[in-house]
Amino acid sequence: MAFKVGILVVSDTCSKDPSQDQTGPALISYFDNLSKESKRQDHNYEVSKTAIVADVASEIQRVLINWSSDSEDIRLILTCGGTGFTKHDITPEAVSELITRPAPGIVHAMLTESLRKTPYAIMARPVAGVIGKTLVITLPGSPRGAKENFGAVSSTLCHALAQLEHTGGRELHMKMNRTLHDTEPGSSESKLGEKCNSDKRCGSDQDQDHNNNHNHKHEHNHEHNHDHNNEHNHDHNNEHNHDHSHSHNHNHHGLVKHTLINQTESGVPSVVKRPRKSPYPMLEIEDALQIVLENTLKPEVTTISIEDPELIGSILSKPIFSPMDVPNFPASIVDGYAVVSTDGPGVYPLDFASCASAHSEKRSVESGLIARVTTGAPVPAGADAVVMVEETEVVSTQEGGKEEDRVLIKAQNVKPGDNIRKPGSDLSKGAEIFAAGHQITNGGEIGLLASVGIREVSVYQKPRIGVLSTGDELRNYSDTVLDTSLSYGEVFDSNRPSLISLLRQFGFKPIDLDIVRDNEGQLEETLDAAINGKLGLDYLITSGGVSMGEKDYIKPVIQQKLNGKIHFGRIRMKPGKPTTFATVKRNSEDGSNANGHLNFFALPGNPASACVAMLLLVIPSLRKFQGLSEKSLQLTHISVRLAEPMKLDATRVEYPRVQVFVDENGDLVAKSTGMQRSSRIGSFKNANALLRLPSEAELHKSVLEQGERATVLVFGHIGPL
Ligand SMILES: Nc1nc2c(c(=O)[nH]1)N[C@H]1C(S)=C(S)[C@@H](COP(=O)(O)OP(=O)(O)OC[C@H]3O[C@@H](n4cnc5c(N)ncnc54)[C@H](O)[C@@H]3O)O[C@H]1N2
Ligand code: MOO
Ligand SMILES: [Mg+2]
């Protein structure tokens, strides 16, 4: 059998110009030769994926996550480049964040071989280890270095790869154990759980040695080894459990997944065994937003009456064409007299009068005569202009003196068409009134629909959004009788009103789902009810419980209890670092949305963090779901001057809340709203924008000075200070 190999070249230069890459092709031909020479089928390699990325941790990690997913079936990933000492060399760090089981032996072998060739090998910082069922090795960037390093280990790697091949059986068994736990509370499953947690052998170092020895003994016998692994699945779980502080692996979607090991009987890690380092790669905000938009559910179409207040803010799913001319008769623009323009000034007998009326008679007027008309009345055939009443005088009246007889037309230079709206001149029949994707934003647009007799339109359904707070410490502001004396440790739930109001500000109609306490069982039950209940939610937005605390249950519950797919769990931004985004499949038909699953945003508990994450990530997704085009999803970005110096965070892009105002010169200027700690919701007072402050690492300086330009993302009204 041939092991599938992925080759990832990490280089800023080659990512811009792939023709510069020599290492990728050199390794491909190395593998070609290897498989030609190889007599043993099980020592074959087949390069199935190649890619080039810049020296950016999140890009490297994205490829590794994809390639190490079960569906790709890649056993070996070789990265080339970025392992030196310059500040751009971040490959080892990016790879290490994902490795669950380091393989120092491989590193040792490669360095030993390199040092034999050159003392400069001390400049290399390779890492190697396992992600899921895939071995990852970081090679140097030069073709020669890469081949030499890999050559040092290639002949003995096949055995390791074959062992990895069998990891799946173990994972399956682990899953089966868990299913048993989940489905049969009580007798057999709790015994299994007890054994798992109390078995003295489980997880002891001794036990690990024991297993390792066995593996060693059988290292030349794949089949036997395989059986051995299966036999000891359960022990393996616990061994792992004990020894690995990063308790994560990759699920079948290739995404980081809390392992099912390290868990309490209920399935969620106990505090002593919780991960001590977040297993979630830290994404850049741009990547996180892209993932959110890629995974945003498809919009649904519905019909809505033009009288429905929900129409404002809705997006049309189909173009609308005018079914008629507006006006659909020649209409007078003024009150006056319909004339034949070539007749010129003079005294004319009045033939008849035409008033704006739904019962107008179709009449005509001849040269030498005039007809009185009101604004909006049909202009009689024959007349080609209307003269305003102000430019005329009554010369004589009919008997009784109540009706005009002859009128002096004083207007000079009357031209054909003067003061007449021709049929179709406001809007012609068949013309497109609104394109598909147009957002109805004002009453005038609704009037436009009404003006051509359109009563219903096809729009994208606004999302059904549930907002839920989590936390044992929260006092419910929505209690009927609100007791404002807080107990020690208690805080008012401010996230729900903040988030609900922000959503309303953007035209959405969220549903208040109240508070759930930091209890794993209750959390699962509440989330399950929200997801699978009759509400038919498209979005579930929670706040709190997504970081590293012992009661931060949201992520494990999403994965292990709700079978959700977590797309990301950390972003290199401030505030909002642990912002989490998942998709969860509905398992009930009740009130189901058309997509069959929902988007789940688990926002951080810190009040400013939750609001910032809402503005940067949730609103664009909701807008996409609502049918808006890509260019209109994010908050509007504008360039402003800084009213004061702004200190940069070392590594995270920061979004302080600012007040943008128009200064005395008419320039837009941004001023901080005060202390920006993520717990301080007061930073939203007077705020109308988020300032985007790049990190110190990105700008290579620590402060943006007063008067410098920066970008703000606007969410409120801008006026004077
Ligand atoms: N060891 C680490 N600790 C923390 C990290 C980390 O990386 N390692 N990240 C910090 C960051 S950054 C944030 S942001 C917070 C996020 O915390 P959680 O999402 O887990 O939220 P909680 O722990 O539940 O609460 C945090 C904070 O927010 C208050 N809160 C929560 N909900 C509400 C609400 N509805 N209304 C008002 N205030 C609320 C809560 O009382 C806490 O003070 O984690 C850091 N920790
Ligand atoms: O992300 Mo946290 O929001 O820095 O406090
Ligand atoms: Mg927490």
Question: What keywords describe this structure?
Answer:
alpha/beta; binds molybdate ion; binds ligand LQZAQKY5; MoCF_biosynth_CS; Molybdopterin biosynthesis moea protein, domain 2; Molybdenum Cofactor Biosythetic Enzyme, Chain A; binds magnesium ion; ATP binding; single chain; 721 residues; six-stranded mixed sheet; 6 domains
Provide the fold topology:
Layout: E1 2-10, H1 12-16, H2 23-37, E2 44-53, H3 57-67, E3 76-80, H4 91-96, E4 101-102, H5 104-117, E5 128-131, E6 134-139, H6 143-165, H7 167-183, H8 187-198, H9 205-217, H10 222-231, H11 233-243, E7 248-250, E8 256-258, H12 285-294, E9 301-305, E10 320-321, E11 331-332, E12 336-339, E13 346-354, E14 370-373, E15 385-388, E16 392-397, E17 404-409, E18 420-421, E19 432-434, H13 443-451, E20 456-460, E21 465-470, E22 474-475, E23 491-492, H14 495-505, E24 511-516, H15 520-532, E25 539-543, H16 554-561, E26 565-568, E27 573-574, E28 580-585, E29 597-603, H17 607-625, E30 636-642, E31 646-647, E32 653-654, E33 657-662, E34 668-672, E35 689-692, H18 696-699, E36 703-704, E37 709-714
Parallel strand pairs: 1-2, 1-3, 3-6, 13-14, 21-24, 21-25, 22-23, 25-29, 27-32, 30-34
Antiparallel strand pairs: 4-5, 5-6, 7-8, 9-20, 10-19, 11-18, 12-14, 12-15, 13-17, 16-17, 26-28, 28-29, 30-37, 31-36, 33-34, 33-35, 35-37
The structure holds ligand LQZAQKY5, molybdate ion and magnesium ion.
Magnesium ion binds next to loops.
For the biggest sheet, the summary is: 6 strands, mixed
Rg is 36 Å
Give the name of the CATH architecture of the largest domain: 3-Layer(aba) Sandwich
Shape by Cα distribution: elongated
Poorly predicted residue ranges: 168-263
- Bound compounds, please? ligand LQZAQKY5, molybdate ion, magnesium ion
Number of strands: 37
Distance between the termini: 71 Å
Report the top-level CATH class of the largest domain.
Answer: Alpha Beta
Query: Looking across the biggest beta sheet, what order are the strands in?
Result: 2-1-3-6-5-4
**Proportion of helical residues:** 25-40%
Q: Helix count?
A: 18
The CATH superfamily name of the largest domain is MoaB/Mog-like domain
Question: What class, by secondary structure content?
Answer: alpha/beta
Rounded mean pLDDT score: 85
Indicate how many domains the architecture comprises: 6
Percentage beta strand: 15-25%
CATH topology of the largest domain: Molybdenum Cofactor Biosythetic Enzyme, Chain A
